[in-house]
Amino acid sequence: MADETTGNALEVEVDDSDARSFASDSGYSDTVCSTESIRSSIFDYEVQHGRTYHAYHSGKYIMPNDEGEQERLDLHYHALRLSIDNQITHAPVVNPHGILDMGTGTGIWAMDAADAYPEAEVVGIDLSPIQPNWVPPNLQFEVADVDEPWGFGEDRFDLVHTRIMNGFGVSSWPHFYQEAFSCLRPGGWVENQEFDCQIVSDDGSIPENSTMTEWARLWNRACEMIGKTGRCDPHGLKCQMEEAGFVNTRIMAYKMPIGPWPKDPMLKDAGRFGLVALHAGVYGMSVRLFLDVLGWSEERLQAFLADFRRELARKSIHAYWPTYIVLGQKPAVPDG
Predict the structure, then answer these.
(1) Top-level CATH class of 3-23+32-329?
(2) In the predicted structure, residue 136 carries a pLDDT above the cut 60
(3) Domain residue spans in the chain?
(4) What does the pLDDT read at residue 294?
(5) Pfam families per the record (predicted)?
(6) What is the pLDDT of residue 132?
(7) Global pTM?
């Protein structure tokens, strides 16, 4: 029976003692998928707007893959993990033999999973070979495309995981779930850890005519213009899981804070990571979409992002990303 739980989404309490200490709102300080072998051509990254981008299936993924973006991804990973109870996975896997991380990015989640489950074979898949060379012995990385046939065979993994793929990392969720269903062992789980690219607050602390909300609106508009989306529809994902044959599906809703405004210590740390990630990484997230899709000039974008960062640093704003975990299980006993 499918069900839904709430995670931390009901309420995140603001740290009033911290807020009262502010003499003024001066702001925070600036402080496969074919299993193809990695070839030299994959490392011939494209350079555009002073940033590097993946070469394998060039143009498919809109974000950079350079050092600055890798830092943002790792910071965002810590913010997300702390926002979801500091757990690697919410799937009830016990002694897994195989774990597949689709869209592994820097490989940080896959490395944590390999350390947590040393007896499991862990495979991380991404378009960019940006992962470290020194990794746990039970972990391997491969360059491949999530939207192509995966080629892993049947009944190999106990968990298939994604994180922050939304509609700009996965073009077809029905295809994704069909492939996941095939390569999972009976009783295995698929888990999507995704955030909705809209910046919101529960207490009205985001001002009218907010630059942050305008940025999110324009970012999503540009994504839509190229057939992608940064929005997350957890109920849509859940339904598509079920259509692929998954059972015991459920949604867990969370809030990933932007800034250390929550009272809860873990969420406060999550907010610190999230604030730094967005402050430092918003240009890389924006440059291709705003310049190449929306037709902005570099000067206009830089001025807009300067306003964005000033607003982002305001301590009185209690903003967060809506965040969801969507889970589904392959039936333990196949039908028929």
Answers:
(1) alpha beta
(2) yes
(3) 3-23+32-329
(4) 97
(5) Methyltransf_23
(6) 80
(7) 0.84
